[in-house]
Write a structure and sequence with these properties.
single chain, alpha/beta, 2-enoyl-CoA Hydratase, Chain A, domain 1, six-stranded mixed β-sheet, 12 strands, about 15% strand, globular
Length: about 270
């Protein structure tokens, strides 16, 4: 993860207003990132810069878990098409997407996408950059860029096949069709589907539960899984050995082992260190 000073983070955060994106830190250790960029929540360059700054802020002062959400009807509609132009603008936009979503994905905490409505194009790519996607029954996913004569540029060509498989990713991306919640659940694009009214309750239930857990071990587990996906099995096992060794430096590992020996599994009160 790139090094960012507190001064840089503070300056970037000063440029973010609640008109495009908002960060809430709850007492239970959960951080909620909410896209608030108008009715359709386009992922403009200002939103992407704000998301990147928030990810940097969270990396500097880690919460217990993160929820990313948008509007009730539209989670995020995708890139701001009014900013499109030629190759130079395209290069700038795809870089901002990759940098912002990469910073979010790199957080050593569970990042949960809470998808209430449409998550199309960049919105789908944002959801896929999260570790876990909880969708309402009204949620719709898709990569419709092909209908504009372009391709996904926020990670869709890489994250979608890793989630649903290459053949299904090609069919979805080359047709530009929309994927409703139940199909998304069936193919793995969504991890849970709940009634619309229960969405926030369920995402907070999961996030707050994780925030009380062994946070160092969670971060190392996430890193080992993510790094291993691009490695051979032998190299991935080497990453696991490294992480397994490192986790025993944590205070939580001592608490967890002692609690298990004295009280059995699931009784430890972790401190997040």
């Amino acid at each position: 993860m790139r090094s960012v000073s507190a001064e840089q983070i503070g300056h970037a955060r000063e440029m973010i207003t609640e008109s495009v994106i908002n960060l809430e830190r709850r007492d239970d250790g959960v951080a909620i990132i909410t896209l608030t960029n108008g009715k359709v929540n386009p992922l403009s360059t200002a939103v992407l810069e704000g998301l990147h700054a928030i990810a940097d802020e969270l990396a500097a002062d880690l919460p217990g878990a993160v929820i990313v959400t948008g509007g009730e009807r539209i989670f995020a509609a995708g890139a701001d098409i009014s900013e499109f132009g030629g190759p130079e603008e395209g290069a700038m936009i795809t870089r901002k997407f990759h940098d912002a979503l990469g910073a979010l994905a790199a957080l050593p905490r569970m990042v949960i996408a809470e998808v209430a409505g449409y998550a199309l194009g960049g919105g789908c790519e944002l959801a896929m950059a999260c570790d876990y996607r909880i969708a309402s029954t009204k949620a719709v996913f898709g990569q419709p860029e092909i209908l504009l004569g372009i391709i996904p540029g926020g990670g869709g060509t890489q994250r979608l096949p890793r989630i649903v498989g290459a053949s299904r990713a090609k069919e979805i991306s080359l047709s530009g069709r929309q994927v409703a919640a139940e199909e998304a659940l069936r193919i793995g694009l969504a991890d849970e589907v709940v009634e619309h009214e229960a969405l926030r309750e369920r995402s907070l239930e999961l996030a707050s539960s994780l925030a009380k857990g062994a946070l160092v071990a969670q971060g190392l587990t996430k890193e080992a899984i993510d790094r291993g996906l691009s490695l051979t099995l032998d190299d991935g096992l080497a990453v696991e050995r490294e992480a397994f060794t490192e986790v025993f430096r944590s205070e939580d590992s001592q608490i967890g082992v002692k609690s298990f020996l004295e009280h059995g599994p699931g009784k430890a009160d972790f401190v997040g260190r």
